[in-house]
Every structure is written in C-alpha cells, then in structure tokens.
C-alpha cells in the first residue's frame, strides 16, 4: 500500500479499526477485508497456495515443493538458472581461489546469453517496468500474469513498433485489470508512469481491437469498497452506496456514464444520508473525477430516484 509500511499479513488477526476478528481474504482482488466494518486492511494480499498435509518429517520432506513455478512476468518464464555469487559449490564448500576467475567468466557469459537478442532485451526491460508499476499499484499476482500475457501477444502482433514500451505496458496493465475485475482508473495508472493518461487510453483501445480482448465494461460497484476505504466510511455507508447503485441500475441511469463518476456520486449521497459527510472535493480526489462530474451525477440520481437528502 502506498504510504504505508508493508506488513506480514499472516500476523494480522484483528481489524485495526474496530477490533473485529472476522477478516475475509479476497484472493481475486488481492485484498484483506474486515467483515464487520468493511475496511480494506491491505490491498496487496497474495495467495500463498495450499499447505501440504504431513504426519511425519519424512512425509513432509517428500511433499515439499522446490523451485519457483513458471511465470510470464519474467522474459524467460523463470525457467533459466543463475550462477550464484556466493563462490560455493553444491555441497556448500568454498570454491578454490585458482578456479574463481573461471567461475567469474562463466557467470558473466551466463548473464549475457539470458538476453541474447533485441527481442528478448525488449521483453526483459518491459516486464521489469510492468513489475515496478504493478507493485506501486498493489496489483495481485494473477493480474500481473494476465498483463504479461497481453504484452507478449502485443509483441507477437508487432504492436510495439512506433510506440513506447511504457505506454504499451501501461495499456496491458489497464486491460488486465478490466479483464480480471480488479479495476484501476487511468489516472491511477498514469500516476506511476511517465506516459500521459490520453496516450494510455489510446494504446489500450488499439490493443483491445487488434488483440480481440474480451473486455466487459467496468461497473460502479467495483470501485465502492476501495473508494470508501480511502474515505474511511463505515460499512453502513458502503451498503447504502451499493443500494443506490442498484436502484440506479434498475432505472437505467448508469448506462453511458463513467463508472467512477457514478460510484463517486453514490458514495457522496450515502455519506450525506448516513451523517458521515465528506466534501465533493475529497470524494473527487479519491475517485479521480472532477467535482463537476460528481455534482451532475448527484443531481441526476437524487431527482430520478427521489432521494430525500438533508444537506
């Protein structure tokens, strides 16, 4: 999480806000959520995988897993080997001094041949950039894998020529977030890269068309939990915001409008109705939309849904 020190999530047993022990691990979104007050405790929760059941040390050793799995986030899919810098052999003994110069040369050439041509060098650089941006955005591992696969498809379709690596990586991350229902706004992605928001959106649209990505429009409901958590709103207010969005969807008030703007307006209305007032500016800063957008959506929702609000 940005601005907060990383913690070992396995050590968290109760909510820091309300003290409840009812914590829910949402592996799909990579979030740790309190079931009582609804606060998002951590946005970078990773699935550690199943624990092997063993009844003695021999069984535990035979079932242990060694080595990292294959991953698309590394240019060689994580299947290459590295010569360690520890100067020790497989038995843990120190390598004699007379052989260290030869080992140094082997290590240098092994590092060189990992990226033997321009295509691999481009892929290595791009995937390192993808990892940096994904870490800053607290994106789960499955979304990173999807983004890496989309970038590899773009390379095969020769879509990199004439475009910046950063722009295509940013577009891949945005597309992967949309596909996996872990939405991030264009403003959030633009904040961790040097590419402008308009360029990321243009690259994303081109990739979506040429790669034939099956991307459904994002829903306002997807943003409510994260926005409310940043605004420190209660579970009742979140529930009220979701109810307002359900009513708006039933009255067909959400179609053709930006999901972040509708979600921001619903949260603003819910905060007023539950006496947890937040200013339009604070909501707009969290949602990444203008105050004018919030006011327009606010007027539409209150008039069409006949909501009684005491301002």
Describe the overall structure:
The protein has 311 residues and is mainly alpha-helical. Among the domains are: 1-49, N-terminal domain of TfIIb (Single Sheet), CATH 2.20.25; 132-210, Cyclin-like (Cyclin A, domain 1), CATH 1.10.472.10; 222-305, Cyclin A, domain 1. The chain is 51% helix and 4% strand. It is built from twelve helices and three strands. A three-stranded antiparallel sheet has the order 1-2-3. It starts with 22 loop residues before the first strand and ends in a 6-residue tail after the last helix.
A few lines on this structure:
This protein is mainly alpha-helical and 311 residues long. It has twelve helices and three strands.
């Amino acid at each position: 999480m940005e601005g907060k020190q990383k913690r070992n999530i396995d050590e968290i047993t109760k909510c820091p806000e309300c003290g409840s022990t009812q914590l829910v691990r949402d592996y799909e979104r990579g979030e740790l959520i309190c079931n009582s007050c609804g606060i998002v405790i951590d946005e970078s929760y990773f699935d550690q995988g199943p624990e092997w059941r063993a009844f003695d040390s021999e069984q535990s050793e035979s079932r242990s897993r060694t080595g990292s799995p294959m991953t698309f986030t590394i240019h060689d899919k994580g299947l290459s080997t590295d010569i360690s810098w520890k100067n020790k052999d497989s038995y843990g003994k120190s390598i004699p001094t007379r052989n260290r110069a030869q080992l140094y040369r082997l290590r240098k050439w092994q590092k060189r041949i990992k990226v033997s041509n321009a295509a691999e060098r481009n892929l290595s650089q791009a995937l390192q950039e993808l990892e940096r941006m994904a870490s800053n955005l607290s994106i789960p591992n499955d979304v990173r894998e999807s983004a890496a696969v989309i970038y590899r498809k773009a390379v095969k379709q020769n879509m990199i020529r004439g475009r910046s690596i950063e722009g295509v990586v940013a577009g891949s991350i945005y597309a992967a977030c949309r596909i996996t229902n872990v939405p991030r706004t264009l403003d959030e992605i633009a904040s961790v890269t040097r590419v402008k928001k308009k360029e990321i959106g243009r690259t994303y649209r081109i990739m979506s068309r040429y790669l034939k990505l099956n991307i459904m429009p994002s829903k306002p409901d997807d943003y409510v939990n994260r926005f409310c958590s940043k605004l420190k709103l209660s579970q009742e207010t979140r529930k009220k915001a979701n109810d307002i969005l359900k009513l708006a969807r039933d009255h067909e008030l959400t179609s053709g409008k930006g999901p972040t703007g509708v979600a921001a307006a619903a949260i603003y209305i819910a905060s007023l109705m539950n006496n947890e007032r937040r200013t339009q500016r604070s909501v707009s800063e969290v949602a990444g939309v203008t105050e004018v957008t919030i006011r327009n959506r606010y007027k539409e929702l209150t008039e069409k849904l006949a909501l009684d609000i005491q301002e």
